[in-house]
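Structure request: (Mediterranean fruit fly) hypothetical protein, Ceratitis capitata.
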Amino acid sequence: MTQDILMKNDEPTTPTNDASRNQLNQYCATAKAASGTQLLDVVRQVLEAPAIYVFGELLALPNVQELKNGPNEKYFNTLNLFAYGTYKQYRQKPDDYLDLTPTMQKKLQHLTIVTLAIKNKCIPYEVLLEELEINNVRHLEDVIIEAIYAGATHNASNKKFNNSYQKSL
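Returned structure:
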């Protein structure tokens, strides 16, 4: 598993990056003061939020950490999966996690692409097809393009992914 990549202050700021950071800070502030179903709602909202691809700050909150040893451990496991895991891991043990909405599944696929790109300069299509459980190249290319336009490649891993992806073309 890859280390969670936290948004750093030394990254070049762009309107999208600033908006994502502000949105993440708002979720963290809300989660810090939340408990019970309100906290669970915040976790779901973060997983659904289209611009949020960094989860370390939220995972570090003490009340979020408490979720891992209780009746709501699926919330913690799912948040941890988005921070450190892959789509394939989710598909191997879906009962360990929340049921993902189509939006969450797509986001996890985007994060999986970033994770693989961080590990390898060039990712063969065969690897991506297997890891994302996609059965045709055209659909895979659409998912890659969506990840780039959604900001997953920038917000989750700064320029490292973009350089790796360009080298593989």
